[in-house]
Amino acid sequence: MNRLTALLLGSAAAVAATAAPVSAQQKAPLSILRVIDADNYDPIRSTSTAAAEALYMLADTLVSVDFDMKTIKPGLAESWKVSPDGTTYTFKLRTDVKFCDGRPMTAEDVVYSLKRWTDPANKSPVSFRGGQVKDIRAEGDATVVYELKEPYSDLLFQIGLSFASVVDKNAVEKLGANFGVQGFNATGPYCWVKWTPRQELVMKKNPHYTWGPPIYKDPKPQIDEIVWKIIPESNTLMAAIQAKQADVTYYMPYIALDTMQRMPGMQVQRQDNYIYDIFMGFKVDKPVASEGVIREAVNMAVNKDAIAKAIFFGKGQTLPALLNASVLDFDKDAAAKMPKYDPAAAAKLLDAAGWKAGADGLREKDGKKATFTVYGIRNDVNPRITEAMQADLRKVGIDMKIQLWDATVAWGKLATQEFDAFVMAYPYVTATEALNLYFNSRQAPTPNRMNWKDAKTDEMLKAAATAVDADKRKQAIGAVQAQLTEANVWVPLVSQPLWVVSGDRVEGVRAHGVYGAGLYKGLDIKLKR
Amino acid sequence: MLRHTLQRLLLALPVLLGVLLLGFLLMQVVPTDPAQVRAGPTATQDIVEAIRRDLGLDQPLWKQFLIYVGRLLQGDLGVSIINNVPVVQELGNTIGPTLELMVASLIWAIPLGIAMGTVGAYFRGSILDRAIMAVSVAGVSLPVFFLGLALIWLLGFKYPLLPFTGRMGPFWTWDGFLAIILPAITLGGVFVGPVARMTRSSVLDVLGADHVRTARAKGLTERAVVMRHALRNALVPVVTLIGLQIGFLLGGAVVTETVFSWPGIGRLAVGAILSSDLPMAQGTIIVLSLGFILINLAVDVLYAVLDPRVRGA
Amino acid sequence: MSSVTQTLAKGQAESLPAPTTEDFIVRRPSVLRMLVSDVGACISLVLVVLVIAGAILAPWLAPSDPYGGDLANTLKAPGEMGLLGTDGQGRDMITRLLFGLRTTLLMGFASVVFGCALGGLVGFVAAYYTRVSGLLMRLMDVLLSFPAILFGLAIAAIFGPGLTAVIIALSIATVPLMARVVRGSAIVVLQQDYIESARSLGMSDARIIFKYLLPNCLSAIFVFVTLRFGQVILLGAALSFLGLGAQPPTAELGAMAADGRNFLFFAPHVSVLPSLVIFVVVLAFNVLGDALRDALDPKLRK
């Protein structure tokens, strides 16, 4: 290091010292960086990961999800019982829970929140997740009964999602449409302070909180103030973490992870049981995408391993099957049916089916060109994934046109019938949930964007969802996996890994990742200075 | 003078109305369905329809526009369809930071540009003149985002001297001041060049004028001629240029605000248009266009002050 | 607003006093000579010619397929693979830059040509027919008050992001500026005696506009077009930065620079090289435009 650099660094340290006047008594807030903001923070009104990751800190659910993504642990409910016919769930509540404003939580609050979530009158886009509700009622001060019209094997997992958060009725009624926008009140480890859309969400410690889920060492929050900051430009985000202008992020560009790992004091950790899959789905009723041969050839021609390696800089994992191998009820036999990467065989398959290459190298059959349009969200990986697929498909004579949209408009675009295929990344907890969400004919046109309408699928999906017996459920949902794999409705691509990067001021960070929420409740995290 | 100002103000009204209509129509042809945006990715069709009714989007177009203008006249710009926040509130939150950024950019860029242009004209044809012109032309030839990222790389990352993750308070506080330096260099950087070039050519123009020749003939030094006679007259067109370039500056602000996560109106506008948040997009368009019109109005008036001949015209 | 228009017209008049027809014909060779005598302008002229040639000849000059990537060889540094390395898809940078240049110049030319044709028409009509002048120029003021970036965003939202949307947006953003420049210089020309005599000879409006007005405004138009070209390319790059430019796999310099920024701190060449090419192209056009302005303005001559 020459003298000039030393001088610069010296002055940098001086500037940094004056820029962030950290006194001994009060630690600077924990700053968590992310790239996009949520549309709002009302549990039942937003489906975004950006809302979920904050809501888990602001509010609690009856049950919690363990780090393995499979085990349900107590939350606001100490224990629960399921009736033998699988239609009645009885939750025994903790009695020491208080809202941020100090009011003790009662069974009525829980009933109110769950009804608010599942009542069709509230037009919640996530109400279906609550199942076919017959009645939700309180029995005494500390018991809630959740009664269904038919068994629903996913219910506990769904009740563990942020959509089923317990909120304060008074706050909801007082704030109306501004609940989760201008204010909030719930029983989470952290309390709402202020939200500035697209800028930051500030929360402070809930002083009463002692009821953290047992998956954490310490059930009490350790940090006085947390600021969730939006940094839309990922270079800026990366530089900010490196220059220690912020503490934690799980939106670090993959390219930077190795560098971060080498930096002294920087902690980089991976959550292996993270389920956030990227796939391409075909609209099976569109001219070219309706051809099973084309879909199969695409599944064979796309080099998924190369994509996982190059685009995620060695940090991604190829999806071997329709679903993530670590999800509950993953079916190995169905996974074996997934076509392997083999462009030559793909070309042969197309030849045999009458798709012959024209003068421009593009295949056609009966005057129909082998071309289709894919839609997707413009984020940091989709442009590169689709472009790589496009190059692979060109080699076998298929022309894939790409149209990516800004995150907010994309959902509107993805609801139309304008495209032939779409790429998407989605978080889920069980196989039954994922497949019921996407492949039930009732779910068309969204989220069943494939327009997949099949009586057998519907039947098996229902059988899985209403199964009381775990083995029967596994069997039914396994059959759906096999059927969909054989039909090549999806091109499974990459399982997005969750990497949490934290600076040297922080300790106790542990990657969770349910529904994309990398820090879940944010307990056990401490600031050293 | 007052009559002149009022006259200009009156002429700006139809322009503002035109902007309003154009903005509304543009947002109407955007084929994105706001109800779907609001409903989110997993919503079913009847939920979307219900939301559409709630938002009043099932009304005929003319009715929607009339309702909009009617509310606008009462100072009500509606609420965001994305998060229900009143548009006026969001505009109020973001105008300040953008103005701050613009002032911080112009406060060094304009004087520097004028100085560079004057020096260039004074030493016209010399190496110095050429160097100044080269620098100013180079400054306007670089993509704004590249300049911003290069600055982050150099002064935030390689030599971590300055913060770059957004506003940290008003610029008169030490934190706020430090945070605004990099964005202000980036945004001002695109402005120095045009000002320098305009000043130079304008000073050269004036140097050829009669009264300057007379001054020279009287035996004044070239320096005195430039400072006392040429510069003051030359500044008139420069002032106009600055007004016209405000639109360009707003464009640069949009990019700068994104690069530096600056909580300004440019970023708000981009987000609103991209997400088809019609009331919010309309609000930002009105404010940005109104800003442009008002600044040009101010330039007009200033122009009349500097150049009395205009007043009669 | 209107005196801003007047001011600009005046500014134009001051820096570009309209030459008479004879002047124009006589002066042309001397303009060329002046350009040649200016070193910066010379270099710029050569650069512009080279850049255009490179763009046209891209398919023959490029060493490889612009769309054929190799994911096993992504982000190779210059020299490590190919002369200028590879991009995020493992494509050769030289090839991408050549094809990118082609698209970018096409985008620039198309926007400037469409915008200037329409803007020129509006400008001439506004100058010649004083009755519609007020209305037309107010319309131009409306367009001018609409920041170009917002316009681009709205157009992209309507047509979907892509080159077409960028060209439409940049063309529309060029119209009011061109209209002002043309109107400004046309008004000055219209005050000349020969226009009066042409009118008194009973010449038709169209003939006067094409025979006298247009040729005498050409120098102002030419300067504007040259300078505008650079601005349009930069605006296009800004739109690409916001994700609205050319869609993959099309190579376009602005989109390449913007997309490549994801690797800026690790493989800077992917973003820096296209930015550098943009810089050189815009710089060349700007220097050329300045030189033209100087050459066409007798007052600035030594």
Please bin the fraction of helical residues of chain A: 25-40%
The helix/strand class of chain B is mainly alpha
Shape of chain A: globular
Q: How many strands of chain B?
A: 0
Describe the structure.
The complex is a heterotrimer of chains A (529), B (313) and C (302). Helices cover 30% and strands 21% of the residues of chain A. Chain A has 529 residues and is an alpha+beta fold. In chain A, the strands form six sheets. Chain A has a seven-stranded mixed β-sheet. In chain A, strands 14-21-13-20-18-19 form a six-stranded mixed β-sheet, sandwiched between helices. A four-stranded antiparallel β-sheet of chain A has the order 4-5-7-6, with helices on one face. Chain A is globular. Chain B has helices at residues 2-29, 34-39, 45-55, 61-73, 87-122, 127-139, 144-158, 174-207, 210-217, 222-259, 265-274, 278-306, 308-312. Chain C is mainly alpha-helical and 302 residues long. Helices cover 75% and strands 0% of the residues of chain C. The longest helix of chain C has 37 residues, at 205-241. The interface between B and C is large, with 69 and 53 residues.
Topology:
The complex is a heterotrimer of chains A (529), B (313) and C (302).
Chain A: H1 3-19, E1 30-34, H2 49-58, E2 63-65, E3 72-74, E4 77-82, E5 88-93, H3 107-118, E6 133-138, E7 143-148, H4 155-159, H5 169-175, E8 190-196, E9 200-205, E10 225-230, H6 234-242, E11 248-249, H7 257-262, E12 267-271, E13 276-282, H8 292-301, H9 304-310, E14 317-318, H10 332-336, H11 343-352, E15 356-357, E16 363-365, E17 368-369, E18 371-377, H12 382-395, E19 399-405, H13 407-413, E20 421-427, H14 431-439, H15 455-465, H16 470-487, E21 490-495, E22 498-502, E23 506-507, E24 526-527
Parallel strand pairs in A: 1-10, 1-11, 18-19, 18-20
Antiparallel strand pairs in A: 2-3, 4-5, 5-7, 6-7, 8-9, 9-10, 11-22, 12-22, 13-20, 13-21, 14-21, 15-16, 16-17, 23-24
Helix pairs in contact in A: 8-11, 14-15, 15-16
Chain B: H1 2-29, H2 34-39, H3 45-55, H4 61-73, H5 87-122, H6 127-139, H7 144-158, H8 174-207, H9 210-217, H10 222-259, H11 265-274, H12 278-306, H13 308-312
Helix pairs in contact in B: 1-12, 5-6, 5-8, 5-10, 5-12, 6-8, 7-8, 7-10, 8-10, 9-10, 10-11, 10-12, 11-12
Chain C: H1 2-15, H2 21-37, H3 39-61, H4 93-128, H5 130-145, H6 148-159, H7 163-190, H8 193-200, H9 205-241, H10 253-260, H11 269-296
